[in-house]
């Protein structure tokens, strides 16, 4: 129980750190020059620029239905950490003043993209997300191989085109494109979102872990094993999952069988019924 509490405290701290970076990026680099971030935050920004509404509140409102959808479809830990990230980011955007650190829009776009990428990557490595598209991605990739990159490109491209069209000034749109590109590169450096991994779990509590792993909606292969020296019969559970879900699976194993031996290996490719429930 103590290990579980420490894990939650550590994850919450890292998510909070990510929120500080994201909120700082928004208020100090992106919003002062009326640039855009990617995903739902970008939609909140463009809505705020043209309506005059508080962008932080729009960010929260746009994320609420996604968080509720995720709560129904995904594990509790991922959504709780994501909700903490969204709420903290909203609160910090109220506290941190909107002021331009740099007078150069292109440098602000670069710095803002780096900070958003760092903050989002840290949140994802901790088992959560920064909300919005990350939650939608996690839901969709649990069910099928979905061309998420194409959808994200189309969404962000549409937002950027809207900014350029309505402002009749394409420079902010181009700077925003650069910022979003850098965000993606930094995120991939910290946390490769589509990386598949194979997890081998050697345990004496096979039935218990199988019951708990059902909520992950991943196929599991059970192999009867025997200790080479102890001659003790055990189960080896093999499953293929994504980096989105690995932290949740590891947390589940720590909680229900901390003595289990777990081997995580990167997976080059998968054929068959992967991602189907």
Description of the structure:
There is one protein chain. With 277 residues, the protein is of the alpha+beta class. It has 2 domains: 2-190, no CATH class; 196-267, Alpha-Beta Plaits. The protein is 64% helix and 12% strand. The chain is built from 10 helices and 4 strands; from the N terminus they run ααααααααβαββαβ. It has helices at residues 2-30, 39-51, 55-73, 76-95, 105-125, 133-143, 148-167, 170-190, 206-213, 243-256, and strands at 196-203, 220-226, 233-242, 261-267. A 4-stranded antiparallel beta sheet has the order 2-3-1-4. Helix 2 packs antiparallel against helix 3 and helix 9 (206-213) packs across helix 10 (243-256).
Q: Report mean pLDDT, rounded to a whole number.
A: 82
Helix content: 55-70%
- Quickly count the domains: 2
Q: Give the C-alpha Rg.
A: 21 Å
Regarding quaternary structure, what we see is single chain
Note the run of SSEs as H and E. HHHHHHHHEHEEHE
Work out the number of β strands: 4
What does the overall shape look like? elongated
Q: What share of residues are in beta strands? A: 5-15%
Biggest sheet, open or closed, and with what strands and sense?
4 strands, antiparallel
For the record, give the distance between the C-alpha atoms at the N and C termini, rounded to a whole number.
Answer: 31 Å
Secondary structure category = alpha+beta
List low-confidence stretches. none
- Widest β-sheet, arrangement of strands: 2-3-1-4
């Amino acid at each position: 129980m103590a290990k579980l509490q420490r894990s939650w405290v550590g994850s919450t701290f890292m998510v909070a750190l990510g929120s500080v970076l994201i909120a700082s990026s928004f208020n100090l680099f992106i919003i002062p020059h009326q640039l855009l971030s990617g995903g739902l935050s970008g939609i909140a920004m463009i809505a705020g620029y043209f309506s005059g509404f508080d962008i932080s509140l729009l960010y929260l409102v746009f994320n609420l239905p996604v968080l509720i959808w995720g709560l129904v479809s995904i594990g509790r830990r991922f959504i709780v950490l994501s909700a903490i990230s969204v709420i903290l980011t909203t609160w910090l955007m109220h506290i941190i003043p909107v002021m331009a650190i740099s007078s150069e829009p292109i440098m602000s776009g670069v710095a803002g993209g780096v900070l958003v990428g760092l903050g989002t990557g840290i949140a994802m490595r901790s088992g959560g997300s920064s909300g919005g598209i990350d939650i939608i991605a996690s839901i969709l990739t649990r069910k099928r191989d979905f061309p998420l990159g194409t959808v994200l490109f189309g969404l962000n491209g549409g937002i950027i085109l809207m900014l350029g069209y309505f402002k009749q000034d394409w420079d902010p749109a181009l700077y925003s494109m650069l910022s979003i590109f850098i965000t993606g590169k930094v995120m991939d450096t910290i946390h490769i979102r589509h990386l598949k991994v194979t997890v081998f779990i050697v345990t004496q509590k096979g039935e218990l872990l199988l019951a708990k792993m059902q909520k992950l909606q991943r196929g599991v292969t059970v192999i009867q094993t025997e200790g080479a020296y102890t001659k003790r019969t055990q189960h080896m559970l093999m499953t293929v999952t994504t980096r989105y879900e690995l932290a949740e699976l590891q947390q589940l194993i720590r909680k229900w069988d901390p003595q289990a031996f777990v081997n995580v290996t990167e997976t080059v490719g998968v054929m068959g019924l992967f991602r189907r429930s």
